[in-house]
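Closing statement on the nicotinamide-adenine-dinucleotide sub-project.
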Amino acid sequence: MTATSSNRVALVTGAGRGIGKAIALRLAADGLDVAINDIPANKAIAEQTAEEVRAKGVRSTVALADVSRETDVAGMVEAVAKDLGKLDVMVANAGIANVTSLLEVDVDTWDRIMSVNLRGAFLCYTAAARQMIKQGGGGKIIGAASIVAYRPFALLGPYSASKWGVRGLTQAAAMEWAKHKITVNAYCPGIVGTDMWELIDEKLAKEEGIPQGQAIKKYSEAIALGRVSVPEDVAQFVSYLASPDSDYMTGQSVMIDGGIQFS
Ligand code: NAD
């Protein structure tokens, strides 16, 4: 593909692995050019995702940035618009989890969770909206919420609150940017077998005094469809949110969890 490609352009944050990587590859398969973000420490896996995106016949670029830092996010969006020509779809996917009881969590941990998950979504949403408005309007902004944005998990209090915040932010942004023809929606995965759940399982199992690997098993019993999610389950739904098929939908945070939580 050349610099004159007429493809739509997406940027996926935290796309070096897990759900973000699956979303990047799915959007590439859908024919979008896809920019890959991750933190500088994960440059190698970000470049690997970009290679796999290019192998699908579309363009890619890597924009390393910490989504919790305002200047990083502004620079990331600017670099993507320069490298790939514009920005049509922002997927604010990057997030971190922490398993600690509310009475034990320290303020620094609280701040770190909020700064990546909620401030990061705010910074990505607004930087993308500014770029889309500059281009003349129109665009898709998509955030990573979670089923815990509707019903928290005990021991995941700060994480749950941050995702609840993403749901509120998504509604506010949808209201403010509808006049620019920008839709804003979020996806709410349940239990997806990624590195994040490995960490959650390890910590939850320890807190609950059960063997490692048993926490994910215990929580998975609540899944109506009877299996733990894979990242591709989420990517298929994000493909819809990124496509014109979802043009009449905005402000929604939708469960894609195999039937754990019902809104
Ligand atoms: P993961 O930990 O496997 O991958 C997250 C990626 O984001 C990593 O590559 C990481 O380096 C990157 N990242 C972390 N902090 C970043 C930052 N400050 N700036 C840029 N990149 C950063 O996680 P995942 O399971 O793929 O989750 C992706 C998103 O989906 C997260 O927002 C998560 O909260 C949400 N989610 C996951 C699950 C699940 O079960 N795994 C469920 C609900 C919601």
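The beta strands are 9-12, 33-36, 60-62, 89-92, 139-144, 182-189, 253-256. With this model delivered, the sub-project is considered complete and its resources will be redirected to Aim 3.
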